[in-house]
Specification:
There is one protein chain. Helix content is 47%, strand content 16%. The protein has 11 helices and 8 strands. The chain has helices spanning 16-26, 45-56, 70-82, 94-102, 118-132, 157-166, 184-188, 202-215, 222-225, 227-243, 256-273, and strands spanning 4-11, 33-39, 61-66, 87-89, 147-151, 171-175, 194-199, 248-250. Strands 2-1-3-4 form a 4-stranded parallel β-sheet, with helices on both faces. It has a 4-stranded parallel β-sheet with strand order 6-5-7-8, with helices on both faces. α1 (16-26) links the parallel β1 (4-11) and β2.
């Protein structure tokens, strides 16, 4: 029976690059069982020491990383070597190194990551699911979601959901007008799914809504663009998140990729804690 490897993907940014590199790499090996542990925004030695301690709890770990800071990258390599954990930067010859570790000959198939395997179809299904469950639609089967995003209007719920879907996560997003907007399933089972609240600064939200009204050539909706009303919306949303103990991400200064990376980290913690 082949070993199951714990693959640690470590990045000092969103982790998208290393995720794609690993996707291409694993396509070269047919008999390769693994679990992924992803660590985005790794920028301190303490973060590295913590994840290395975690990796030592697993019998067979492999570390792949993209870290720009040479000093931090050297620290990771040095500490991994102390613990006898294979550790590779993405600029190393990964296929050769993995061939040695797995004791397998690489298939050397160009664009092997694009083979229509089960994972590919799961991603297609995730995209379809997410599009069907956008903006509060089809909440009757919300329990089938991997991730549920909640937030007031213009908090990047839809673009973040689509990004997550492309990473294989079935994502529902719910516009939060008031607590009554929360689907009954989530009220009765607040911890059954990975639910994440998205929030932003009221001033930023005001600008976004004003710009949207201009973009679609609609007369200004006084309720929609009233700053005091927006402040109340944001405050009520935060109270709802707090009531059900749902984690919150402030998207004010985050790109969609950064927000999605934070959501994925929360999902992994939720899944780990069962």
């Amino acid at each position: 029976m082949p070993n199951t490897y714990e693959i640690y993907l470590i990045s000092d940014s969103t982790g998208e690059t290393i995720d794609r590199i690993f996707l291409a790499l694993k396509a070269q090996f047919n008999d390769f069982k693994y679990n992924i542990q992803q660590f985005s925004f790794t920028r301190t030695e303490n973060q590295i020491l913590k994840l290395l301690d975690d990796s030592q709890n697993n019998k067979i770990s492999i570390i792949l990383y993209t870290i720009v800071d040479k000093k931090l990258a050297s620290f990771l390599v040095k500490e991994s070597k102390k613990r006898k954990i294979p550790c590779f930067g993405v600029l190393d010859d990964l296929i050769i190194n993995f061939s040695k570790i797995l004791n397998q000959k690489a298939s050397n198939i160009p664009s092997g990551q694009h083979v229509l395997n089960e994972e590919y179809y799961e991603r297609v299904e995730a995209i379809q699911f997410t599009m069907n469950h956008d903006d509060g639609n089809m909440t009757d089967d919300i329990k089938d979601s991997d991730i549920v995003l909640l937030g007031v209007s213009r908090t990047s719920k839809t673009p973040t959901s689509i990004y997550l879907a492309n990473r294989g996560f079935r994502t529902s997003n719910i516009p939060l007008i008031d607590e009554n907007s929360v689907p009954n399933y989530l009220i009765k089972n607040p911890k059954s799914l990975c639910v994440v609240g998205l929030t932003t600064e009221p001033g930023r939200l005001y600008d976004l809504r004003r710009n949207r009204m201009t973009l679609i050539n609609e007369k200004e909706n006084i309720e929609y663009t009233n700053l005091e009303k927006i402040k109340k919306e944001v405050d009520n949303a935060k109270k709802t998140f707090q009531k059900y103990n749902w984690p919150v991400i402030d998207v004010t200064r985050k790109s969609v990729e950064e927000t999605a990376a934070s959501v994925i980290k929360i999902y992994e913690i939720t899944k780990k804690n069962g």
